[in-house]
Model the fold of this input.
Amino acid sequence: MPIVRVALDVPLATLFDYVLADGIAAVPGQRVLVSFGRKQVVGVVMECVAGSDLAVERIKPVVQVLDEIPPLPAELLTLLRFCSDYYHHPLGATVLSALPVRLRSSEPVTFKEALQYTLSVSGRTLDLSQLPRRKVVQHRILTALQAGALGAAQLRALSPSAPSALKALLQAGWVESVARTRNPLSNSLPQAGERTSEKSHTFSRAHTLTTAQQQAVDDVTQAQGYGCFLLHGITGSGKTEIYVHLMHQMLQQGGQVLLLVPEINLTPQLENYFRSRFPDAELVSLHSGLSDGARTQNWLRAQAGQARIVLGTRLAVFTPLPQLALVIVDEEHDASFKQQDGLRYSARDVAIFRANQRGVPIVLGSATPSLESYYNAQTGRYRLLQLTERAVAQAQLPAVRCINISNAILQHGISEHLLSALGQCLQRGEQSLVFINRRGYAPVLMCTACGWLSDCPHCAGKLVLHLQDRRLRCHHCGHQARVPHACPSCGNADLQPVGIGTQRVESALQEHFPKARILRVDRDSTRNKGAWNAMRQQIHDEAVDILVGTQILAKGHDFPNLTLVGVLNPDSALYSSDFRASEKLFAQLAQVAGRAGRAGKPGEVLIQTAFPDHPLFRALREHDYDAWAKILLAERQSAGFPPFVYQAMLRAEGKQQAGVYAFLQQAREAATTLAMPVEVYGVVPAAMPRRANHSRAQLLVQCVTRKPLQQFLRAWRPLLDALPAQKLRWSLDIDPMEF
Ligand code: ADP
Ligand code: ZN
Ligand code: ZN
Done:
């Protein structure tokens, strides 16, 4: 009896057996429709076997084999099994969560043909001087098409207004569209070793590599099979240029490239940048901002081997790539590579497993590598590639200075020194950036008479004052309320904002520099779709003098006229309960500092702190990541923290505090009775002990090596599943990043 063992998206760790009707065949990786309980659901065949342990009459038949798309490759199934195993997440839930939403339903999948555009007969004979010269984009498109057919995405890279120009050209009959490729759905996957016969990929070679860049490229391309490379290069040292050269080589050999970037970095600009560097290679992006339909199409193009470059956020690590030849993880230290719910995977770590499984090189790039990766490079597990200078010779690193605020008088959190530097920058006609990692007007509102504070009624946090719409908002649960006219506790009318946020800095600066054009960039001001892109354009057009913003501004943007960066309030990270807080702060400040003085103008960074002698600030001033990393590593070693130990965190939350603690206590007892060589800590409140009326607590388990921890978790997990856990949610987080 032909049985298929199917992965279903249910919270049970097992696969489910179904029988295939006579004459129907299925292979592992294929999607099937089966009945489960009273519903019909889509699952993925993981195994085909001859018999089942279940009684024949209890095995239900497969309703339908969904064979309109090729089965998931065996390699991907292995990867997902590994993830399920390592992260102790049910296999079915793991497999289904890796698929685009469309493919988790039985709705028919239709493949949209990608169109290509070519010159028509009349277009080929057209005398370009007949076309008015002001139709710049039409000229550009016609010229580009003279060299050969192009896809819509490639045309879009020519100009933002390419779509309307293209439409005009189609209407005029000078350009026509043709189907680009065979339908990948109707065809089997390219065989391993089969090279696509497209013309060799050209790329626009803008720069001759520096010696250090060339060395890094050579090291990677000369690697045989798998190798993990940590590319540590200061901001502006030309890491992106190295990626481009490596990608070029791999594409030429017929390979596909997977390029993972942090969530916040994946802008259309980045997509266009890589498209413009590889005009002949099909590039697709994969991220949560795409519509379900677009994401499915892009995924299918990657699976079919047609998309040669996949540019995506963490979820893209699960894309089937039959010709995968190179993986790049840019800004590898970024926290957004770790998923914080469901399958709590680190896309960086999964990418490393994937490269290893495939036998191809992987490059982890960063100006401030995570301590884990840095340590792995120190111990020789990864190979270190270093770029210590900026690629553009005249681009100097900014001068970093601290402003000691212990005794300084501050106006809305801003020192006299910083104000005068901002004023001079304005006079020179250059841009400046004031960085503060807190949105809103002030983090809390206080009564000057009785000390009442604006606590969130549902959380352990405070309500943040937002003056623009005069509301108090909780940044944890979303609760909001009108700003009271008087103290709710004593009736006093004098309520004062305490501390500073972006809105307060913005209004203070506006008052101080009435003529300056100030732009605030934070989650509130960029909420509307397209808002951030419009702002970037404004900044580039130099329609802005002073930027006030949060981390959104820190990452990977090149603003050539920006020469001064001010940093407000970085100190709280120095005494945070999260042992990674200072590591993150350094990375963040190094990144913001990297915004200053990119294009030949010297830059300056002024950090307001009460601890100017702290080693973190010393290392920043000296641009010495290594010194800082060594200090941190020594601290972590003596305290017994990662990367010297491996950790797993059991978290629980529920409305009843007693229930939450009882569950974790029982989990702890179960752990200790296992008597395995791991350290089991006590049950403690979470960093945010109450959120949205739920009590939250956690239990940490750790071990100096990975294997015994994994063995322990395998034994512990079934015991956890067996514990009574009514009215609470719990989860296991392997290699947790949040404490
Ligand atoms: P990173 O990714 O390390 O921040 P980029 O690759 O963006 O650095 O390079 C920074 C700047 O230097 C860019 O403007 C880039 O065009 C330029 N650049 C990179 N490599 C070279 C090179 N070999 N010669 C000249 N300019 C270069
Ligand atoms: Zn009061
Ligand atoms: Zn709240």
